[in-house]
Write a structure and sequence with these properties.
It is a single chain. This protein has about 325 residues and is of the alpha/beta class. About 30% of the residues lie in helices and about 20% in strands. Strands 1-2-4-3-5-8-6-7 form an eight-stranded mixed β-sheet, sandwiched between helices. The radius of gyration is 18 Å and the shape is globular. The N and C termini lie far apart (about 40 Å). The N terminus and C terminus are likely disordered.
Length: about 325
């Protein structure tokens, strides 16, 4: 495993001593990625794959739901669906209710499933698909961002969404994006994947729809205030062709909602391979991305000290239950 970004580790240690606000924990991120990629056992048996056709997929979903439910302050539910002839699928949704429920909400998402479809002879029903970078890195960051934001009272509602069946054609995000009315979403952020950092260069692409270029510029501004070590590069998605549609932000663009795709660059050679293990991932880089997203969500959602959290309304947005 690569740890080529010592900045965040040192910052976290100094923050703990000085009382500075807590930052994303590389240890917690690594723990999540180890479980999801099968490097450590889950209840005595490692997860070999999170692909929807693999028998370990339900175990991964159940564990992730329990992790979300373990964060005090979140309201957690599932958005079930069937796809590819399989039942028992569904997005996992955790809401941090905002003090001003009429404000547009903020979504932070990653996909929980995995694939190794570029491996010769790979069989999704029995073969491994560790998906440590794609997208256990994004899932780990979503969980960590949720943990850090949950104690706060924010003006805007924030939803954390772990999309299912992304690798089968963005099925989960297609279903979820369709549940929102125009103007209901201030911004959706898709973290997919955010673990690979070749040479320690720290490149983070922020792909935007040309209808909302200011959304990417605002992330860069948040990063500059945070003094992030990341090299942030806004990219006009219209210049990427079909490659701009390959993550869960794309259905939100199609539905007319502002969304951004955050991804490390360049793509690792282990993409969609059985070799997408923790050796591909720079945990400290992932922590830096999580810190950036957490800071930007706070900028958008506006913390409101000394205001009691409102009661939750998970039915909002047409996908509660």
């Amino acid at each position: 495993m690569r740890w080529s970004s010592p900045w965040l580790v040192l910052f976290a240690l100094s923050a703990a001593k000085s009382g500075v606000e807590e930052q994303p924990s590389p240890d917690k991120l690594e723990e999540t990625m180890r479980v999801l990629s099968g490097e450590v056992p889950l209840e005595g048996q490692p997860l070999r794959s999170r692909n929807i056709h693999h028998p370990d997929h339900p175990r991964a979903r159940a564990w992730l739901r329990s992790r979300l439910e373990g964060i005090e302050g979140l309201v957690v539910w599932e958005e079930p669906f069937e796809a590819e002839g399989r039942a028992g699928l569904g997005n996992l949704i955790a809401e941090l209710p905002g003090a001003q429920p009429d404000r547009p909400m903020i979504l932070v998402g990653a996909h929980l499933d995995s694939t190794a479809s570029r491996t010769d002879g790979w069989d999704p029903t029995v073969d491994e698909a560790p998906g440590a970078d794609d997208d256990a890195s994004g899932v780990a960051a979503v969980l960590e961002i949720a943990r850090l934001l949950a104690p706060e009272t924010l003006a805007s509602t924030v939803r954390f969404v772990l999309f299912d069946a992304e690798e089968e054609g963005l099925i989960g995000s297609e279903i979820h994006a369709a549940a929102y009315d125009a103007g209901e979403i201030a911004l959706m952020l898709s973290l997919d994947p955010i673990g690979h950092n070749p040479g320690g260069a720290g490149y983070l692409w922020i792909s935007f729809d040309p209808r909302w270029p200011s959304a990417a510029e605002a992330v860069v501004s948040s990063g500059e205030r945070l003094q992030t070590p990341l090299v942030m590069q806004p990219v006009d998605g219209s210049l990427l062709g079909a490659n701009s549609q390959r993550s869960d932000h794309a259905p939100f663009w199609s539905a007319g909602h502002p969304a951004l795709h955050l991804a490390s660059f360049p793509q690792p050679p282990d993409y969609h391979q059985v070799t997408d293990t923790l050796d591909v991932v720079d945990v400290a880089f992932t922590a830096s991305v999580a810190a950036l997203v957490r800071a930007h969500v706070r900028d958008l959602a506006e913390p409101m000290p000394d205001v009691a959290p409102r009661a939750s309304t998970p039915e909002r947005g047409g996908c509660g239950g």
